[in-house]
């Protein structure tokens, strides 16, 4: 059996109607997992489900809309996914918010709270709803999509970086708590990737040139270039890995 075989596994991916989350949902389905596609808009989720089913067969995907700012939405997401498929083996916390671009001196309290609530506390909520059944079965992989913003300073994305550093610590702490139950928790820390979420950093050619100038690969990443790490962390291939952050950034953080 392939180390990356996910046949019989069930994965829930937040923010999976586009960008990195969508790419991860597609690759997990390709490797045999049943996937739950979730984002705020039901129509966008259903569109992704139709695409996945057209490629990998009816029943391979399910749409469950959820707003990560709502604890009750996340409780419903976890409960409905488990009720439909019988369990959740893989959780990918990908959805995030960044309503502010600029120096920390200019951020409002509401903007800062939204970043921390949606990027850290919402992950904690959803994990707390999903983890108990993983612990009971002594099997599970939780993946938080962090960012290299949590590893380096920024004069324009400081609050976002704070939240992503917190996600890495959340993963480490939960890895220590859940490890005795064979439930693993890891992060993926992407660099600049061509998504709508990061459009302000790459749409302008000058911004893109500045953002990629010091990266050895000298270019922006694509969403599918992050998905392989999710397959690895979801599968038996990473069975001895927990509490870690996989950096995928074209080498940006080494310079």
Quick recap:
The chain is of the alpha/beta class and 255 residues long. The chain has eight helices and seven strands. It has a single domain (10-249), classed as NAD(P)-binding Rossmann-like Domain (Rossmann fold, 3-Layer(aba) Sandwich).
- Give the SSE string: EHEHEHEHEHEHHHE
> From the 3D coordinates, which CATH architecture would you assign?
3-Layer(aba) Sandwich
Q: Under the CATH scheme, which class? A: Alpha Beta
Radius of gyration: 17 Å
Classified in CATH, the superfamily is NAD(P)-binding Rossmann-like Domain
Provide the β-strand percentage band. Answer: 5-15%
User: Which percent range fits the helix content?
Assistant: 40-55%
Count up the helices. 8
Rounded to the nearest angstrom, the distance between the terminal CA atoms is 39 Å
**Total strands:** 7
List the defining traits of the structure above.
single chain; 255 residues; Rossmann fold; seven-stranded parallel β-sheet; 8 helices
